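Q: Start with the shorter request: fold the first protein.
A: Done. Sequence, then structure:
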Amino acid sequence: MKKPELLMPAGNLEILKTAFNFGADAVYLGGDMYGLRAKAHNFSNEEIAEGVEFAHKLGKKVYITVNITAHNYDIEGIKKYLKELAVIAPDGFIISDPGVFMLAAELAPNVERHISTQANNVNYLDYNFWYKLGATRVVSARELSLAEIKEIRANIPEDMEIESFIHGAMCISYSGRCLLSNYLTGRDANLGECTHPCRWRYHLVEETRPGVYMPVEENERGTYIFNSRDLCMIDHIPEIVDAGINSLKVEGRMKTALYVATVARAYRNAIDSYFESPEEYAKNAALFAEEITKCTNRQFTTGFYFGKPSSDAQIYDSNDYNKDYIYLGTVLKTRYFIGDNEIPAASISDDMMKNSDIRSECELIQKNKFCKGDLIERLAPGSLEKQERRVLMIKNEAGEEMESCPHASQRIFVTVQGYIAQNDLLRVGPND
């Protein structure tokens, strides 16, 4: 069995680097246009080039979404965009439109073409069709079961890759091809402008009986009848591998660095543990499941993977996320001290990292408020072991001490007891 790729979303360059630091084998991202996430920050061509260079130095991959349903007025712009991307040389394009697919073959022949889930890929004839046209990978429709994917694997060429979503938000419409946003707000989900009306509150009323509410499960605020739980398959790595899926994809190009780091680290540990020993994976299954709940979520479901979801896969009384853990910031630079002496970062050994006397002064752009004296958590690549740190001091850029940091996006310097490394993330949980 070949270990599957862990494919993470990246909404900006910082998150791309975070994804790789925390265990992703590849990321997918969108440029300024044509990528179905118009409200995301997205990447300029210069940022895409920097991200691709960063990934390739690590031996990892970057895929670019070009998966809008293109209209005539999009075509000239897409041609220009594909030519520019061909020079940057990412590892693949994710495409749903057949016309764009053919343009990519002509204008960027050095870049692999992957078929988006938006193309409704539900059988092995679809896969073989795209393979004969030059696609190297197809993203399975989310409506497929693992049994169906396994049958597809048995009926396609060995070098044809299957990519499947294994974590993240689920869409109300078939393979994400939704008209609800366009109908209600004039913003087309198939052009990247979804307003997520599936998360809004609704009442069911028969048109000849205004004010008479039908017996739909609801509370006093209405019902979220379209609001799905989030997909989570961390408990089912053996079944995913057995189905022959090559790339395990996490949804979330509009998520934070903390979300990406938490999910990437949890799945990295789960996948590696399974391939080291299925018994080791089973022994640590509860730990993996616990860690994944620390990212924002709408409760979890296994989606369609084990058959048609029941009514339990929907959430009827709320569209809120569970947000038990708060993102404090990503460490930009660190200085180390023992007593009054500063210790050069290059001289710190593994034993010194474990020294309880070491203090770390961390520079970061603060995301949420915390206070001097708080117990915060270090989120570092690798082990899922909980690493708590006490905040000893907070200073602003002028070097003035502060009791707390209430202003988002403020550059601060935080001294904690214990070792923290550059690029670690800081968070605080419900019991910290």
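Q: Next, the second protein, separately.
A: Sequence, then structure:
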Amino acid sequence: MYKRILLKLSGESLQGEQGYGIDDVRLMQYAHQIKELADKGVEIGIVIGGGNIFRGLKGSQRGFDRVKGDQMGMLATVINALAISSALESIGQKARVLTAVRMEPIGEFYSKQKAIRLLEKGNVVIMAGGTGNPYFTTDTGSSLRAIEIEADLMLKGTRVDGVYTADPEKDPTAIKFTEITYDEVISRSLKVMDLTSIVMCKENKMPIYVFDMDHEGNLLRVINGEQIGTLVKP
């Protein structure tokens, strides 16, 4: 059993079958899975994207200034963080939102010391706003936060059940990896996370586990050691 993890969720995952925004059913499914883990004594940090609301890069392609577009994306992650926090609190799980840019009273300003202190007190800590800087994705933000809070493992919850040789939704011959190294991910140009985040994890020896978060109970299965996804390691 891991003592402390960082769970990276995509914003798109929260939209469920709606195609946009936040699906209440999916939100509560996630909340129950997270609480189930917290009840086992695992300390949980969460970073979530904002793609269900706004993606800065796509905004810049439509004519938005890139910096402003990325800032809009950061705010979208805060909306999602508040939704997860509210869902967790509604089922009796303590949760706190920390933001990479100051916006009290919506969330407290992030610091490593504050995050670790809250985790040790049994809070699920949701770290929003990415890194607080433009040109960095929430993948990079999750790698940074996992390293900062000294997590034992970073979990990337997606709609795909691991890392494949190609996109399994497009290529039926794609083969799933049980384990793969950072170097292999980079050399094969596999779309696990963006390059910056992979290199950051490699340099700091932060293992990444990619799995399907949309299947209820999978989060606990990963922590219990079941081989349901792909481990990215040195």
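Q: Describe the second briefly.
A: The CA atoms of residues 30 and 43 lie 16 Å apart. The mean pLDDT is 93.
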